[in-house]
Amino acid sequence: MAAAVPEARRFARGAALRWAIPDESSDTLSLIVSELVTNAVLHSGSADVTTLLVFDGVAVTVEVTDFGRWLVRDANRRMAEDGGAAFGRGLDLVRACTNWFTIHPSPERTRVVAHLPVEKSGADQ
Description:
By secondary structure, this protein is of the alpha+beta class. It has one domain: Heat Shock Protein 90 (2-Layer Sandwich), CATH 3.30.565.10. It has three helices and four strands. It has a four-stranded antiparallel beta sheet with strand order 1-2-4-3, with helices on one face. Helix 1 runs antiparallel to helix 2 and helix 2 packs antiparallel against helix 3. The N and C termini lie far apart (41 Å).
């Protein structure tokens, strides 16, 4: 399941490239997808995570769904090599980078939807 995070990032970058989304917005999209999928991997216990991206020409809607239940981790994820690295701020990053996001928990799954405005490239302005 840990492979889901880099795979989802590649998926987001590929979609941004096909949609000709400018680099800055593409980077932000990859960050959002990475944070949301990481949360699903760390906290859901699900063997499956789905990622849906929809671009309407102005914004990308990101939807990440897991099919597990929230789990409390047994071990601290920090290792000595992590030193001063910050953890636990993924949803704060998502909140800061998007117009809005919502979390839809249920006994069968958790679905998170985020709305990312896309900056126009210099050629489009």
